C-alpha cells in the first residue's frame, strides 16, 4: 500500500495512492482516508487525481535519525573507516520537505551534496529497547530520502548538526510504501537525469532491523519518526538549477529542484 499526505482544495489529508507502480501522476488517483494512517484504514469516499493535488512530505516526524557511513564504498570515498557500531546523528524536523519542494542552498556553504537513502517510517507502536523482531514490528513502511549535506561545513565543524540541519535539507517522499522487504533494493540518485549514485541495500553494513534495534536502545522512536539508513557511494555537489531525483526500488521517485536561498 502507498500512503500519501497531500493538499487539496478542502485542506490536507492522508490517502491511499491507487494505480500501477511506476505510472505517472496522470494515471494515479489518491483515495482519502479518515485521520492518520497508523490505525485501521477507513476511506471517506473522496478521491482525486494525483495530478490535481500537491503531494506533501508523507509524514511530519518528531525527529529524523540518520546513520552515517553505512555503505563501505561511501565510507571509503569520504576517507573514513567503516564504523564498528552504527554512527548516529539527527536532522531537525524543520529540515523536512516533500516531493517537488525546493532544496535551498545556504550562503554559508560552497559545497552542498546529495545523499540518496532508503528511509524507514516508524509505526504506531513506536520502538523502545526492542530486539530485531520488535524492530520489524515497529516499522510502518518505507520512503525515499535525500540527506542533503553541506560537505564543507561537515568537515570544518567535525560534528554534523549544522551541515545536515538547514531548512529543506531532508526531502522525503513521495509516499510511504507498506509491506516492502528492505533487504535488497536499488537506491539511485540522478541529477539532471545523470546517474550519480547507484547501490543496493544488501550492501548496508548494518541492516534495517539492526539499525532500528540499536537506535531504540539510545532513544525512543515515536510513531511517524523517520530513520535514514545511509547512502551508497557517489555523492557529489548540487547547484542552483539542478533537479535531484532519489529513487528507491519498490517505492518511487522523489524529485526536488535546487535553488539558492536568496532566490
Automatic annotation (TrEMBL):
<keyword id="KW-0378">Hydrolase</keyword>
<dbReference type="InterPro" id="IPR036663">
    <property type="entry name" value="Fumarylacetoacetase_C_sf"/>
</dbReference>
<dbReference type="InterPro" id="IPR011234">
    <property type="entry name" value="Fumarylacetoacetase-like_C"/>
</dbReference>
<protein>
    <submittedName>
        <fullName>Fumarylacetoacetate hydrolase family protein</fullName>
    </submittedName>
</protein>
<dbReference type="InterPro" id="IPR018833">
    <property type="entry name" value="Rv2993c-like_N"/>
</dbReference>
<feature type="domain" description="Fumarylacetoacetase-like C-terminal">
    <location>
        <begin position="63"/>
        <end position="258"/>
    </location>
</feature>
<keyword id="KW-0479">Metal-binding</keyword>
<dbReference type="GO" id="GO:0016787">
    <property type="term" value="F:hydrolase activity"/>
</dbReference>
<dbReference type="Pfam" id="PF01557">
    <property type="entry name" value="FAA_hydrolase"/>
</dbReference>
<feature type="domain" description="Rv2993c-like N-terminal">
    <location>
        <begin position="1"/>
        <end position="58"/>
    </location>
</feature>
<dbReference type="Pfam" id="PF10370">
    <property type="entry name" value="Rv2993c-like_N"/>
</dbReference>
